């Protein structure tokens, strides 16, 4: 049978903070004799002494100090657990995972994160990145509670969506790339002669998706947009890039936009969550992000980065 209960730790803590049994009794709304008896009984049962008695005043023994050093951590953990369980009963999630397409840097949501921190909710937030279909897959396989994904979701439903805007894409090459000197619009056979730089779809089970890639196309695969832009600037290959993310490169002629016979349509991005799922934190983030924030957000983030560099 466990003799050292949370109630006993709270009692010893109150005595240590107050300096006497009578002061601790007042703090705990108990009579002093009850406090004195319970501590004496505990010391007798455990064969330990937690306090040195000096008349009405008491001080912790080394064993008592060790008890409180560990015991206060246990009390804090127990209090936190109780609070979390109460919040769960009220519909507040313990944690929430937001997964977004790799195109979106986390700094685009700093204001939202700061605003959430001002709420009374203590939900732990997890932010993750996936690519293309991988974002939808994270939602469908319950690895994410809320996603920001490209294009239409998988068939079969089970989720709700809200369009947050569209991105325009430009076909780009380096000024030194052979295609930069070709007659426009570029035809399919011309593109097939050169390497396309593509970002790998991170889906594990759903059918993979590619953007602007022909069957049989020579390709080099990277895992993020920054690497794709770097390789295309270096003349390694060609491909479509989101305009807001390459405005500076186009302006400085580090990349050249080329017309192609089969241009890529604008891509719509969606905020999505599973049907029927509710939660205080989920609802907060859902309402917060249900706004048309593309492409403005990416332009703003790009300008802020440039200002920091200057």
Strand line-up of the largest beta sheet: 4-3-5-12-6
Q: Spans with pLDDT under 50 lasting ≥5 residues?
A: none
What is the radius of gyration computed over CA atoms, rounded to a whole number of angstroms? 30 Å
Residue fraction in strands: 15-25%
Number of helices: 11
Task: List SSEs in N-to-C order.
Answer: HHHEEHEHEHEEEHEEHEHEEHH
Distance between the termini: 67 Å
Count of β-strands: 12
Average pLDDT taken over every residue: 88
By secondary-structure content and strand pairing, the structural class works out as alpha/beta
Main sheet, how many strands, which sense, barrel? 5 strands, mixed
Shape: elongated
Helix content: 25-40%
Please explain how this structure is put together:
The chain is of the alpha/beta class and 310 residues long. The chain contains 11 helices and 12 strands. The strands form 4 sheets. Strands 4-3-5-12-6 form a 5-stranded mixed β-sheet, sandwiched between helices. Helix 1 (6-18) packs across helix 2, helix 1 (6-18) crosses helix 4 (62-89) and helix 2 (21-28) packs across helix 3. The longest helix has 28 residues, at 62-89. The relative contact order is 0.14. The model has no long low-confidence stretch (mean pLDDT 88).
